[in-house]
Design goal:
The complex is a heterodimer of chains A (363) and B (693). By secondary structure, chain A is of the alpha+beta class. Chain A contains 9 helices and 22 strands. In chain A, the strands form 5 sheets. Chain A has a 6-stranded antiparallel barrel with strand order 1-2-3-6-5-4. Chain A has a 6-stranded antiparallel beta barrel with strand order 7-8-11-16-13-12. In chain A, strands 10-9-14-15 form a 4-stranded antiparallel β-sheet, with no helix packed on it. In chain A, a hairpin with a 4-residue loop joins β5 and β6. The longest helix of chain A is centred in the first third of the chain and has 15 residues. Chain B is of the alpha+beta class and 693 residues long. Chain B is 25% helix and 28% strand. Chain B has an 8-stranded mixed β-sheet, with helices on both faces. Chain B has a 6-stranded antiparallel beta barrel with strand order 1-4-5-8-7-6. In chain B, strands 9-10-11-14-13-12 form a 6-stranded antiparallel beta barrel. In chain B, α2 packs across α5. The longest helix of chain B is centred in the first third of the chain and has 28 residues. Chain B is elongated and about 95 Å long. Chains A and B meet through α1, α2, α3, α5 and β8 of A and α1, α2, α5, β1 and β7 of B.
């Protein structure tokens, strides 16, 4: 059966236009040798046993295990005292998430070969919520951030972390396989608070959103580093837990700065309210009474000769977007207007019946 | 080769001949595809676009040659999966909603975008009902080209949890093509695609088909991650063809009504696109789809119970119209054999309201084929009201009491008369009339034949049954109205206060056992009090009048633990009622359970569990905000409620009333630990009415 199938592969290869064109594109002997070797491998008996197909993953996983650590620190009062991390330098620097676990003078880092290292915080980036630790011994192996890869949507990945603190001593951390569902801006919260990091995130479909997983490594199937697993977060729009990692390119510069001894301060990313914010009254708009939690922004009245009237806004129009921001309710509209200065134009997308219209309310 | 099989499992698995022939057709194409991938990887590895993004150098030749199979096949697989997603991506849209409800039955409604799948070039889009429950004021569809279009909801399919939207696109839209259901195999790749994070790129989660025919035959199950991130999006096969639309469809009794609890759990559902397309013309015409209902009452509600024996048909239901009767056994439905209740539910669930349902029943040795059109809603069953109390007599049923201004009293039925026939059926037991009444049409007169008190003259009387009154019926039995309210001098002999023991049960059980009053059988009342000790003296002082004058045998189990009741003690009711029924002459229509304070919770649970036997349940000073009773009232399992306590209980009583139960609330200042505050008069009257028809 195996051999037969191999022969079929060969015959279709010779008759397929696409493969022929590839052959023309790569006419060198090396290409032929590779192809022959590959097809020979396909007919090799072991290949059918199913054991070898995971060999690459196995090596990627085992190689990466040595580069990761199980971290133990402060806990109690319902907070976990463990998380994950991975080596990023020959000198024993460990990258992990900045959390209450690190609030001790001496953090314990346990390698997958069972060594207990003592670690201290070298520096933190409050914006990315990451911390770099220094261990007292060189690591068995490490990820070089310079050798990291960039993730693609749909790419399959491995997550390595000590989720639930299930591994101890010389036990290996846990490996989960999944794929990158999406690369997207993080819109998430922790408890009732917006998460600090709001940048691009690799949303994955492996269930890493669990205690202890934060600080773990996200790898491609060749074992190259793609990102660091983030803290437990809920998606604000769908109200569900999300599994995500911060991509390497987002934190590489910051980590290098910390390693270079620079201090990183918290940047103010919150949106500033305008000094003289525009209001509904100043636009000449009266909305329907705001009685529900999510009353839609329907226009009730337009003051004659107002900014809204000149722009052609009419009663019963429904305001959907303000300056490209979705306003799902009147409350959201007020928030949006608060950040717009009285002297600036206001761009609105409105719905009139089944028609969408863009209007600019000039100052 | 196993790696290749992962790509297309159908290549090697044993399969029925017709599927195999299809695979023969696909085989050359697949082989070319696979070979092309392998060659591309083998030769052109560094040049592939996705790999260009690698920050470091590609794997060296020596690594490649050392293990050619593993990572290459993984990558070939990955590329095939990504291509499948790329094929369907143009048909996947983001849907945003504006305004609407913030909460829906205690649950915060997420306002985030949802996904839709274009199934027709003219702008017909399928999405999940999940994002539309809040009834938004406006719905916008964000098309892959960046344009936006307002959408209207054309129709909803409540059975499959999906909705059809319509937009008016300026030019024809790309449409998703359906995957052939006969090609589906458990274990084959399936990819969940969504578009909630942004309007231009899709999300994807890879998995396999975990099972077919789930959620009573309405959904395909996958282990790809399904959540609000991709509800409304497609589940596609390896060729980018749509298997189904992802949606949190309720999957069965065990998992409850809310399908979203399973999000990201490894259990996700997709409604087959072919099933949706079959209903598309109906939905395009603006007709909502509901699950079809037949209106049968089964003798055993356990899904694993079989054979499926009916205990009746709900009045006004399709089952009643085709003449289904108690005792009928369903043996076949929609051409499939029916052995247990779950089989029957499976057969029913895929049939919509308005569609024909065909089935076969066995009735006294005969096999009868039936068919009927299912309906969307069975009218909620309202208990029929005549306003009489009957007792068995030599020649029929003797009228013991008639409630004032009831249908019976208006028709001229009097105390002492005997009813011998109803609509031609001889009346020998009270249950004979109860079963006629249970399925009688409202406002349609029932013809009774009566005998006068002296047994000489017969008379025909028509009584028109009406729905049971919503207000508490104010009625005292005639025997009591004339009796002296003080206990008679021989009360000591009229009431026995004793203690009962049940084998293996540690609970102490006190009982007040009166002599039968007025020669009628005793009613039986079981009371779960506050946890703690009871003394016979205190029981007698408070409950004697109810026991003796109204004829109730009252039992008070004490909690095994002096501080609290446990759920296990609900079973006490079953054990006690069975025992009492064996030892005493109990009127089966007058069995009630009561609860005081926290004991009320137990009383309600015990009554629901024993609803076949128990006629009514009352609580006193028990805090209830919502009573989790799922089933509507059914003709043969009625249960009356009396909730005494704070004013909020009225809302609970109204909820119960809406699903057909006779439920009353009584606002009263009660202290659950003090029996002196029990409004015995109201309670006695309510209990008295329990056995009435």
């Amino acid at each position: 059966m195996m051999e037969l199938f191999g022969r079929q592969l060969l015959s279709s290869a010779n008759t397929t236009a696409r493969t022929v064109s590839i052959f023309f594109a790569y006419p060198s002997m090396l290409g032929w040798i590779r192809t022959t070797l590959l097809l020979a491998a396909c007919t090799w008996p072991n290949f059918a046993s199913g054991q070898t197909s995971s060999l690459g993953l196995h090596q990627a996983a085992i190689g990466s295990e040595l580069k990761t650590v199980k971290l133990y620190g402060a806990g109690g009062l319902g907070l976990d005292s463990f998380q994950s991390g991975f080596f990023i330098s020959q000198e024993g620097h460990v990258l992990t998430v900045w959390s209450t676990v690190l609030d001790v003078s001496e953090i314990v880092a346990v390698t997958s070969d069972g060594r207990r290292l003592s670690a201290q915080v070298v520096g933190v980036d409050p914006n990315l919520e990451l911390a770099v630790l220094q261990c007292n011994q060189p690591p068995p192996a490490y990820f070089s951030l310079d050798d990291a890869a960039r993730a693609q949507p749909g790419q399959r990945v491995l997550a390595i972390s000590n989720l639930f603190g299930i591994a101890a001593g010389n036990e290996m951390s846990s490996i989960q396989k999944g794929s990158v569902m999406s690369i997207t801006e993080l819109r998430a919260k922790r408890g009732n608070f917006q998460s600090v990091y709001q940048g691009p995130a690799l949303v994955i479909d492996a269930m890493t959103n669990n205690p202890g997983a934060a600080g773990g490594a996200l790898l491609n199937l060749q074992g190259q580093l793609l990102g660091m697993l983030g803290k437990e977060l809920r998606d604000t729009s769908a109200n569900i837990w999300i599994n995500y990692a911060v991509p390497v390119e987002q934190f590489k510069e910051s980590v290098n700065n910390i390693l270079a001894g620079k201090t990183i301060v918290r940047s103010q990313v919150t949106r500033k309210a305008a000094d003289r914010p525009v209001s509904l009254a100043s636009l000449g708009l009266v909305l329907i009474p705001n009685v529900l939690g999510k009353t839609p922004a329907y226009v009730d009245l337009v003051e004659p000769k107002s900014r809204a009237a000149s722009a052609g806004v009419q009663p019963d129009d429904l305001i959907l977007f303000v300056n490209s921001q979705r306003v799902a309710s009147q409350t959201a509209l007020m928030e949006e207007l608060n950040s717009i200065d009285l002297g600036d134009p206001v761009l609105m997308m409105i719905q009139r019946g089944s028609e969408l219209k863009e209007v600019i309310l000039q100052p | 080769m196993s790696g290749l099989l992962l790509i297309y499992p159908a290549l090697h698995s044993p399969q029925p001949p017709e599927v195999a022939s299809r695979c023969q057709l696909l085989r050359p194409f697949l082989e070319r595809l696979i070979v092309a991938y392998l060659l591309v990887i083998a030769i052109g590895f560094p040049q592939l676009p996705a790999q260009d993004a690698n920050l470091d150098s590609p794997p060296t030749d020596s690594q490649n040659l050392a293990e050619p199979s593993a990572s290459m096949l993984e990558l070939a697989e990955e590329r095939a999966l990504q291509q499948a997603v790329a094929l369907v991506a143009p048909c996947v849209v983001q849907i945003e909603t504006f305004g609407g409800l913030e909460r829906l039955e205690d649950k915060l409604v997420s306002e985030g975008p949802i996904t839709g799948t274009i199934i027709d070039a003219d702008g017909w889009i399928i999405t999940s009902l999940h994002g539309l429950h809040q009834q938004p004021a406006s719905i916008l569809v964000n098309l892959p080209d960046g344009s936006r279009a307002p959408a209207r909801i054309a129709a909803r399919d409540y059975s499959r949890e999906i909705a059809l939207l319509k937009i008016d696109p300026p030019s024809p839209l790309p449409t998703a093509s359906p995957s052939d259901p006969t090609s589906w195999q458990v274990g084959q790749w399936s990819i969940a695609v969504g578009k909630t994070y942004d309007a231009k790129s899709v999300t994807q989660s890879y998995g396999v088909i975990s099972a077919l025919g789930r959620a009573y035959g309405r959904a395909v199950q996958t282990d790809a991650k399904v959540s609000p991130i991709n509800y409304g999006g497609p589940l596609v096969d390896l060729f980018g063809r749509v298997i189904g639309i992802l949606t949190p469809i309720p999957a069965g009794e065990m998992l409850g009504e809310d399908g979203t609890v399973l999000y990201d759990s490894g259990i996700g559902f997709a409604v087959p696109l072919t099933d949706i397309l079959a209903r598309l013309p109906t939905m395009q015409a603006g007709n909502d789809i509901r699950a079809g209902k037949l209106g049968v009452v089964t003798a055993d509600a356990n899904e694993m119970a079989g054979p499926v024996k009916l205990s009746g048909a709900a009045p006004g239901s399709p089952a009643a119209r085709v003449g289904l009767k108690a005792g009928d056994v369903v043996v076949q439905a929609q051409g499939k054999p029916i052995e247990i209740l779950a089989d029957f539910r499976h057969a029913l669930a895929s049939v919509d309201a308005g569609q024909l349902f065909e089935f076969v029943v066995e009735r006294s040795g005969q096999t009868i084929s039936m068919q009927c059109e299912l309906v969307g809603e069975i009218p909620v069953y309202r208990r029929r009201y005549l306003g009489i109390q009957l007792e068995k007599a030599e020649q029929g049923l003797k009228v013991r009491a008639v409630i004032e201004s009831s249908p019976a009293s208006s028709a001229g039925i009097k105390v002492g008369q005997t009813l011998t026939h109803c609509d031609g059926k001889a009346l020998q037991q009270v249950d004979d009339l109860a079963s006629v009444l249970a399925v009688a049409e409202l406002e349609q007169p029932l013809r009774f034949t009566t005998l006068s008190a002296d047994g000489q003259a017969t008379q025909e009387i028509s009584v028109v049954p009406v729905p049971w009154p919503e207000k508490l019926i104010d009625h005292d039995p005639p025997a009591l109205a004339s009796a002296d309210s003080k206990p008679s001098p021989d009360a000591a002999e009229a009431l026995q206060v004793t203690e009962l023991r049940l084998a293996d049960i540690p609970n102490k059980i006190h009982a007040l056992i009166p002599k039968s009053v007025d020669s009628r059988p005793l009613g039986c009342l079981l009371v779960y009090g506050e946890p703690g000790q009871l003394t016979p003296e205190k029981l007698k002082a408070n409950w004697e009048k109810l026991a003796v004058q109204y004829g109730w045998l009252i039992v008070f189990p004490a909690s095994a633990n002096p501080d609290s009741w446990t759920r296990d003690e609900i079973e006490l009711a079953t054990r006690l009622l069975t025992r009492l029924d064996q030892e005493y002459s109990i009127d089966s229509s007058r069995i009630a359970i009561g609860g005081i304070g926290v004991g009320g919770q137990l009383a309600l649970m015990a009554a629901v569990a024993e609803r076949k036997r128990v006629a009514g349940v009352w609580t006193l000073g028990t805090t209830l905000r919502r009573f989790p009773l799922r089933q509507s009232s059914s003709p043969l399992e009625t249960l009356d409620f009396l909730l005494i306590g704070d004013a909020q209980l009225q809302t609970v009583a109204e909820q119960l009333g809406r699903v057909g139960y006779v439920a009353n609330s009584l606002a009263a200042e009660v202290d659950a630990s003090q029996w002196e505050s029990v409004p015995f008069d109201a309670l006695s009257r309510w209990l008295e009415i329990l056995g009435y028809l």
